[in-house]
């Protein structure tokens, strides 16, 4: 199994998130897995220019000059994704927001359909609920299935974090064995239905992506998710 994690902290390997996530993926259950954790301080991600080329063509012109092309490749190849950001003024860090902006067109195509996701945040005081909620919404819009969340603050005892690890491990491993049993969010159903109605009458990259991937043949997100999971299994 390939595990790919993004930690949107410029403190890199010195961040609390890195230390906690590194411990999480060091679990005995993942000892034979291909694990890659990257941090914001080691990456070059340019700001979105707002040119909308990605929505029109499926290609971002900046991908050829920074690290985003490799990040997209790692996300698409991952069997488990970990997305983590510290709380910055009750929101994700600027790095994480910029990275998400560069993935914006994937929210119209569900590029990460069916991929299990863990979201994580750290805070010295408050705002964790806003970051967790935002990351869960974005990863759901990308097609991911959020199976767990980790919040780290100054008051969190190590025992509680370890208990969270164990609970998430059980959910992730159960999903990998029986993905058909997972519940999807009402947000994903609504988004899928809205996009299907909009794109079926249009032309261009997004319409062609939906057509080529048989998305117009399914009326609900859950039905399409099951089709994709069965297709790859």
From TrEMBL:
UniProt keyword annotations, A-Z: Flavoprotein, FMN
Domain of life, source organism: Bacteria
One term of GO molecular function: oxidoreductase activity
Pfam families: FMN_red (PF03358)
SUPFAM superfamilies the record matches: Flavoproteins
Residue ranges of every copy of the NADPH-dependent FMN reductase-like domain listed in the record: 1-149
Protein name per Swiss-Prot or TrEMBL: NADPH-dependent FMN reductase
Organism the protein comes from: Clostridium cellulovorans (strain ATCC 35296 / DSM 3052 / OCM 3 / 743B)
Source organism phylogeny: Bacteria, Bacillati, Bacillota, Clostridia, Eubacteriales
